[in-house]
Amino acid sequence: MAPPKGGYAPSLGKFLDTLKSRPVNASVESLISLLKRRQINGSEACAIATAHILLQVVAKDKWSDVNELLGRIQLVGKKLVASQPRELVIANIVRRVLGLIRDEASEDRNDNPSDSSPDHRDPMNSPLPPAASEASSPTRPVRPPGALAQLGSFARTQSMFNLLSDPDFTSPPWSNASTPGATPGIASGASTPLAHGQTTDVHAFRSEVIDGIEEIMDEIKQVDEQVQAISEIIIHPGDYILVHQPSRTVQKFLTRAASKRKFTVFLVVDPSTTSAADDAYAPFRKSMASSGSIVVTVMNVGLMAYMSKANKVILGARAITAKGGVIVDAGAAAIARAARAQGRAVVILGGVYKISSENKFQQEELIEWGDPSKYVNFADGAMVSQVKVKSAVSEFIPGGDIDTYITNLGAHTRDHLHTILTDHYKEEDMSFDIYGKGQR
Amino acid sequence: MSQNKRGGAASKGKNSGRATGEEKREDVLQAVVIADAFQTRFMPFAVEKPRCLLPLANTPLIEYTLEFLAMNGVQEVYIYCGAHHEQIERYVHDSRWSPISRSCPFSTVEFIRVADARSIGDFLRDLDKRSLIDGDFILVHGDLVANLSLDAPLAAHRARREANRDSCMTMILREAGEDEHNTKAKVVTPVFVVDPRKKRCLHYEEMNPFQSEHYVGLDPSILEDPEVEARTDLVDAEIDICTPDILALWSESFDYELPRANFLHGVLKDWELNGKMIHTEIVSEGYSARADNLRMYDAITRDILSGWTYPFTPDCNLLKGQTYQLRDDHVYQEEDVIVENSSEISDAVLGRDTQVGSNTTISNSVIGRNCKIGSNVRITDSFIWNDVSIDDGATVEHAVVADMATIGKDATVSEGSLVSFGVQIDDKTQFNTSTFRDAEDDDAETDDLSRLQKSLVYSLEEFDIDGSSVSTLADEDYLSDDDSAASLTPIHPASRSRLSSFASDDSGAPNFPSFHADAVHGLLEVLRGVSGSFDSEKLEFMSLRLANNASDAAMRRAVATAFVRRSVDLMNAEQGGLEPAKAAKQALTSRKGATEFVADVGVGGDSVVEQVEFALAVQRACVSSAKVIEITKAGNLLAAVLQQMYDLDILEEEGIVAWWGDDRGKEGKEGDAMATVRDKCQALVEWLENAEEESEDDE
Question: Start and end of every W2 domain (chain B) (predicted)?
Answer without folding.
Answer: 510-698
